[in-house]
Amino acid sequence: MTQNLSSIETLTPADLGWTNTQQTQLSLDEFSETTPVRVVAVHRSGLDVLAAGASPDHPTRGVPWPDEGEPTVGDWLLVEREGGRPIRLLDRTSLIRRRAPGTDRRIQFIAANVDTLFVVTSCNRDFNIARLERYLAVAQDAGATPVIVLTKSDLADETGAYVDEARSLVAGLMVETVDARDPASVAVLEPWCGRGQTVALVGSSGVGKTTLTNTLIGDGHLATAGIREDDAKGRHTTTGREMHRLVTGGWVIDTPGMRELQLVDAEAGLAEVFADVTELAASCRFNDCSHSGEPGCAVTAAIERGDLDPARLKRYRKLVAEDLRNSQSIHEARARDKQFGKMVKSIVAAKDRRRGR
Q1: Which one of 37-41, 231-235, 241-245 scores highest in mean pLDDT?
Q2: Do 139 and 207 fall into the same domain?
Q3: Phi/psi of residue 278, each to 5°?
Q4: What are the residues whose beta carbons fall under 8 Å from the beta carbon of 238, sequence distance 6 or more?
Q5: Is residue 47 part of a domain?
Q6: Which of 56, 89, 122 is the last residue of a domain?
Q7: What's the domain count of the chain?
Q8: Predicted TM-score of the model (pTM)
Q9: Which H, E and C letters describe 106-155, residue by residue?
Q10: Contact at 8 Å (CB) between 285 and 295?
Q11: Which residues on neighbouring strands pair with residue 175, listed in sequence order?
Q12: Alpha-carbon separation of residue 270 from 47, 259, 292 (angstroms)
C-alpha cells in the first residue's frame, strides 16, 4: 500500500465518506441543530459512531438506536448537537442485505453506503461459480460496485483459469488476484480504497477476508484462523460487522462468513448478473416461456448452438425461484403485519366510540 492516512489525528466529513448526496438530505434546521455521524459498529446495547473532528481510533460508544429505522454499519445518523439524541437515519446510497438465516423470515442488513463490494474467494476448492453469482447479484441489487478478489494466489500453481472463469460471469467485471498477507500484492485494490471510500468484504469462511482486512488496515489486530486441510473449508473468525480505517484513507467493513446467503428482492441484481439469459428470454416467442422446449424458445436454441451453458440456466432458475419464494414470504409477512395493525386501530376506535370519546 502507498500513502498511509490511517494515523490521521482528526477526521473531516470527507474522510468519513460524507458527500453532496448526504448533504442535500439535511433541512436548514437540521444543518444548524444536528451533527451527522457515521455508524462504525452496531451492538444490541447501542451504536458506535464517528463524527467529524473525532479521532478514527476513538468512536463515541453506546449511542442509542433512533426511534425509527434499523441502523447498520456504514449508515449516516443525525444526532442533536446538544444532548446527542439520535434524530433520524439518512437515506442510503447502497444497502447490502439478505434474508436472515434459518427459519427467520426477516431481512438482515449487512452494510450501508458501501461504494465497492469485494467478493472474496480463494484459488482452491472454495472457488464456486454458483456462490459467486449469488454475491454478484447481492452487489448489483445493493447498488455497490462488485470486484472479485481471488486470494491465496501464492499457493496456486496456476491462477489464470480462476481469473478467466470469474471474468466470464458478468461483462466488464473486475477480477484481482492477491496474496492477502502481502501489502505489495494487495496494493492492486487501492483504486477502490481511497480517502472517504467504503468497501465491504463478503465471502465464505476461510478465504482470507480477515487476513486481507488486516493488510488493508495495516495493523493486523483482527484474529484469524487457518483452514481445514481435508476440505479447504474455513474456520469462522469474524463475529460481527465493524468499520475499520484503511491505510489509504478509506474504510473497510469486515463481515462474518456467510455460507447461507439467501436472496430477497434481488430481481434487478439477478437480471444484471444473468444478462445473457434475460436478453435471450426476451426473444422467446411466448412471454411466459419456461425455456423447457416450447416452440420459438431462444434460450433453448442458444443451448443447442452451444452459446449458453445449460448449467448456467439451471443456476439462474434456482436463484430466481429462491428470490421469489423469499420475497413473497417477506411481502406476505408485511401484509399480515399491516392488516393486524389496521385491525388493532379499528378495535381501539370502536372502544373509543363506545366510551363516547
Answers
A1: 37-41
A2: yes
A3: -65, -35
A4: 209, 210, 222, 254, 255, 256, 257
A5: yes
A6: 89
A7: 3
A8: 0.82
A9: CEEEEEECCCEEEEEEECCCCCCHHHHHHHHHHHHHHCCEEEEEEECHHH
A10: yes
A11: 148
A12: 33, 19, 20
- 188 and 122 in a single domain? The answer is yes
| C-alpha–C-alpha distance, residues 43 and 191, integer Å | 31
* Amino acid sitting at position 346: S
Q: How far is the C-alpha of 138 from the C-alpha of 264, rounded, in Å?
A: 9
Residue 209 is assigned to a structural domain of this protein: yes
Integer angstrom CA distances of residue 124 from 19, 182, 231, 284, 344: 39, 18, 10, 39, 56
Q: Domain range spanning residue 60?
A: 13-89
289 assigned to some structural domain: yes
Q: How far is residue 20's CA from residue 34's CA, in Å, rounded to a whole number?
A: 17
- Residue 26 three-state SS: coil
Q: What is the DSSP letter of 283?
A: T
Q: Are residues 162 and 78 in the same domain?
A: no
Please give the sequence-ordered ranges of beta strands (E in DSSP) within the chain, or none if there are none.
34-43, 46-51, 60-63, 76-80, 86-89, 95-99, 107-112, 116-122, 145-151, 174-177, 198-202, 242-245, 251-254
Q: What is the pLDDT of residues 154-173, one digit of tens each?
A: 777 788 999 999 999 999 99
CATH number at residue 340: 1.10.40.50
